[in-house]
Each structure stands twice: as C-alpha cells, then as structure tokens.
Design goal:
The structure holds two protein chains of two kinds. Helix content of chain A is about 5%, strand content about 55%. By secondary structure, chain A is mostly beta strands. Chain A folds into two domains: about 60 residues, no CATH class; about 70 residues, Beta Barrel (OB fold (Dihydrolipoamide Acetyltransferase, E2P)), CATH 2.40.50.100. In chain B, helix 2 packs antiparallel against helix 4. The two termini of chain B are about 20 Å apart. The chains are: A mainly beta, B alpha+beta.
C-alpha cells in the first residue's frame, strides 16, 4: 500500500508492506521502519539495530526481529513455582518462561524478544532475588 | 467500569487475562455465576458453585509495589464491605483471605504478566455469598454469607462496592 501525507508543507511518501515473518515494514521516503506483533496483540516498533543483534536474511529482504536481551532476569524477589521452557527452545515475544510467586502475587515471566535458550539457571521452588538471571539465551 | 457477565467460566482470572491481552480497558470486570476451574494461589482449587460472587478486575498499569499493596488492601476492602453491610465480624488471614467464624469466606489472587516491566495485571476475588451448603470436605473450612446470615445477599451491590473500594485505594496508593 502506498500513499503520501503532508505535514507542515513537507510531503512524505509512505509505503506499507508485510515482510516474510509477518512483520510490518513502513517505508517513509527512503527510511524503513519495522513493526512486529507480539503475543499480547500489540504492534511494537523494532529499530534497525535489531538486525545486528538477531537479524536473519531471507531472500532479498532483511527480516528484522525484536531487539533481545541475552538474559532473562527475575523482576522481583520470590520463589520460582514453575518453569515453562526447556533448553534449546526458541523464544518469541510473549512466551511464558516461568511463574514466580512473589509479593503475595503470581507473576508470569514472559520473553520480550526472540532467542534460543542456552541455559536455565533456576529450578522449581528455588528462591530468587530481583535481578537474578533466570535464563541465558544464545 | 465495564462489567462483563458470564453464566459459566473456567476461571474469571483466565478470562480477564485473555481479554486484557486483546486490549480490554482497565477496570473491565469479568463476572461469572459459576467457575468450573476457579483457583487461588499456587493453583489450589477454589470451589465456585452457583450463588457465589466470582469476579476479576483488569487493573490499570501500575508499579509492582502498588499492586502488592492493593492485593493486601483488597482483603481489607472485602472485610469492610461485609462488616458494613451485614455487621459480621471478619478476620483477615494475610495476605489474601477473609474468614468468618474460623472459616474462609473470601479469597483474592492477583496475577501479573511481566516482561521488562508489568504488562498486565488482573485481580480475582471469590466471595462465598449465596452458597447454601458446601461439600463435606469443605464444610469445616469454608462458609458463606448465606450460611452466616440465614438469608440471601445482593451480589451486584457487593460487587460494585468492592470495585469502588479497589479503585479508590489504587488511586490513593498510586499518588
């Protein structure tokens, strides 16, 4: 889909297309912006740095993934009540990795990006502190 | 406040999480007349036959400390609502339960989904209101307002009072 918009007398050429991995590419004049939809149903902007971190090339197009962290850390002190992933599993945004019982609440810890699990640093019923590494990604 | 009423659900928390993921507004309230798989902390079963008040609120994005405070305050709000409406003496078993005469009458479970920050939060409350009788395995540990008062209560009125209490408390602690 192509269109033009005018803001403050400046004309922008907009071209919207889907990439091979269902991301959305929005080309504004000559600059590309990429968006992915996570499992929470929200479109997220993924910047061009992402391709350097975890990008893949398919055909002629660069498939841009979300910027990922190499570790998933515990956001809170508490007890890991269950682990929902295995070593070698590939994560994507919104994927539940563990349940943490903390501060009188049950907290589902999710991945925010893509990545393959290299190591799981915690076991069920283990106590963790805020900031402790739960999972290491390749 | 948007109230979504269901005849039967597996769990109001599960439905609230599902709706929140689809973008439902904060303070959307999911109410079920009956739950087939109601649960509390550590997925312990919460008996949810017809007659009880079972609901979950999609909470506004808040910091995790405020959510913890609200979870504890929710038990106080339930206890206060029961006391003010029916003059029943309640006992709060911290952090999440309300008891009357040594038996559980209400339970609260807050569930969060957290990535780099809190993505969504739902608070589920199960209040044993118009339950006439509990099964044998629960009759010594659970009670209802119907059993304590000998008469039925208005679930809709209690729901609104509790939700208003939660909203007010969250406003206060977030300031």
């Amino acid at each position: 889909m192509q269109t033009t918009i005018k803001i403050d007398n400046k004309v922008y050429r907009i071209e919207i297309s889907e990439t091979e991995d269902d991301s959305l590419k929005v080309k504004v004049n000559d600059k590309d912006f990429f968006f992915t939809k996570n499992e929470l149903g929200k479109s997220r902007f993924t910047d061009s740095y992402a391709k350097n971190l975890n990008g893949e090339t398919k055909g002629n197009g660069i498939i841009v993934r979300e910027r990922i962290d190499k570790e998933i850390k515990s956001p809170l002190a508490g007890t890991i009540s269950s682990i929902a992933v295995k070593i070698g599993e590939t994560l994507k945004p919104g994927k539940k990795v563990a349940t943490l019982i903390a501060m009188k609440m049950e907290n589902e810890i999710i991945s925010e990006g893509y990545g393959k699990i290299k190591e799981i640093k915690v076991k069920e019923n283990q106590s963790v502190n805020s900031g402790d590494t739960l999972i290491i990604l390749e | 406040m948007i109230i979504k009423n269901y005849k039967i659900l597996k769990s109001t928390n599960l439905k609230a999480k599902e709706l929140a993921k689809k973008g439902a507004d904060p303070w959307t309230i999911v109410v079920a007349k009956e739950q087939t798989s109601g649960y509390g902390r550590k997925k312990t079963a919460w008996s949810s036959p017809k007659g009880g008040l079972y609901f979950s609120a999609i909470l506004p994005k808040s910091n995790i400390d405020d959510l913890q405070t609200l979870t504890i305050l929710a038990a106080f709000i339930c206890a206060k609502t029961i006391k003010e409406n029916f003059n029943l003496e309640t006992f709060i078993k911290l952090p999440n339960d309300v008891w009357i005469n040594g038996k559980k009458v209400a339970g609260i479970l807050t569930e969060n989904i957290i990535g780099r920050e809190v993505k969504l939060s739902v608070m589920g409350i199960g209040l044993n209101t118009n339950i006439k009788k509990f099964p044998k395995d629960l009759e010594n540990i659970a009670t209802s307002l119907r059993i304590e008062l000998g008469k039925e209560v208005d679930n809709g009125k209690l729901l609104k009072q509790i939700i208003e209490g939660l909203k007010e408390q969250l406003r206060t602690i977030s300031e």
